[in-house]
User: What shape does this take?
Amino acid sequence: MNQDTTRSQSDRSWLKRYYAVRALFSFAWVALAFTLGRSLPGFGSVLLAIYPTWDSLANFYDAKRSGGLRANPTQTGNMATSAAVALAVGLFAPTDPHAAIGVIGGWATLSGLLQLATAVRRWRGASAQWPMILSGAQSTLAGGAFVKLAGNATAHPGAVDVAPYAAFGAFYFLVSTISLIVSDLRHSNPA
Assistant: This one.
């Protein structure tokens, strides 16, 4: 086994764990949004700021683990964007939920494009990136729905409105984990 093969296996192992942790966090976030976020608006505002904060931290850790921030400009961009959005949402959510949802809409669009670009770049080395490509594309489209909701003066947007988006993200991270596991099993046990 050469050094490139060992590194590729290590990268795939890392991605399986990383995607699984992202799925678990997002599923937990969705559960909190539908329960406490719905009944406690203040907690819902905190949840809205936590989601992009988590995304920023996850992208930072992934970029560092995958060769560094300079070697991973899409994750670095996603990290910086998510951090800025977390701050903006933290400021807007308690007093202007429409502005907070609008910011989340812009973030969903941009972070979706960056996630899509990351998955395309990773395709050769890690394969099984099709769920992340779909997730990035869907996130880009979902951003428009959040911007539209932000413009609806009669709506009362909050964490519950973001929960289906986060649930789809969790689903795609779970599918990515499973896809990598299946791909590894196929390669280790050729028929």
